[in-house]
Q: What sequence folds into this?
């Protein structure tokens, strides 16, 4: 039963990675840039939920909603202030800016909240489920995280394929110039993408802090990097790929900690990424794109 327990915990952790990776993959697929501040938006969402619940005494659904709103607004502001002026700049400039925004958010959180960890109260009121006379226990956080991830992925796929805004995103991802000629508001579409990605980061932050109830200014740093790895592993730019990559990464990390070494688990995860990229550089579900020169 211990293997099943580790496996389910890995799927739960991978679901969090998948939700974060969706933000990476949407922004890259549409704006063709990597928002390395994405993990720190998760951290901001965690602090927003913490303050709303612990300091203001608001109910869990309201605190979660406030976290989503704060991160959504923050994502739009970051895109308008930091990334929009660099729309025509080279990729290195955008990358350096993204890293700068990441450190800015971390240090602002450090100044405001301090370095001491905050004890985060779980936002999942569901009691654990016990099977086989207690030999297997599945926490409420595990159940909710997996279900929420599946719902989000299904909802995003439906949104992209069935709505006018989703079709605009697909058009911008293919060719910004042609999309503009067809009447698509490229700037509004990119802002919407950042808003959705940041809202997902807030949800991931609440789920992550509920499962691992410690909140610090660097809470989003490593999950953000691993979610980026998950996006690349699954095929960056692909929503199903982000889901698959996140689940694989979470399961691999958890099983590595359980059966090999907790100290080597991160090294094993990144090693697998290197191997996959050597074999299939576009990722598991990524497609090779031909560019005219």
A:
């Amino acid at each position: 039963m211990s293997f099943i327990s580790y496996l389910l915990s890995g799927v739960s952790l991978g679901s969090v990675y998948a939700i974060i990776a969706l933000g990476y993959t949407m922004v890259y697929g549409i704006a063709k840039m990597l928002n390395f501040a994405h993990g720190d938006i998760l951290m901001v969402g965690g602090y927003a939920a913490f303050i709303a619940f612990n300091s203001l005494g608001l109910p869990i659904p309201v605190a979660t909603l406030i976290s989503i709103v704060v991160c959504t607004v923050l994502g739009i502001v970051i895109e308008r202030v930091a990334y929009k002026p660099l729309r025509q700049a080279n990729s290195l400039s955008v990358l350096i800016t993204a890293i700068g925004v990441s450190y800015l958010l971390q240090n602002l959180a450090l100044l405001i909240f301090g370095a001491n960890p905050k004890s985060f109260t779980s936002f999942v009121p569901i009691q654990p489920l016990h099977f086989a006379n207690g030999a297997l226990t599945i926490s409420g956080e595990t159940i909710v995280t997996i279900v929420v991830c599946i719902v989000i992925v299904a909802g995003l796929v439906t949104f992209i394929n069935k709505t006018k805004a989703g079709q605009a995103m697909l058009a911008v991802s293919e060719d910004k110039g042609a999309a503009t000629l067809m009447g698509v508001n490229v700037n509004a579409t990119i802002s919407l993408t950042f808003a959705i990605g940041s809202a997902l980061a807030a949800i991931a932050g609440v789920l992550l802090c509920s499962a691992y109830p410690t909140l610090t200014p660097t809470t989003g740093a490593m999950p953000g990097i691993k979610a980026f790895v998950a996006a690349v592993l699954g095929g960056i730019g692909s929503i199903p790929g982000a889901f698959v990559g996140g689940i694989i990464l979470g399961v691999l990390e958890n099983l590595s900690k359980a059966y090999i070494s907790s100290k080597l688990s991160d090294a094993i995860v990144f090693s697998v990424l290197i191997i996959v990229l050597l074999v299939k550089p576009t990722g598991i579900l990524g497609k090779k794109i031909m560019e005219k020169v």
Remarks:
- The mean pLDDT is 88.
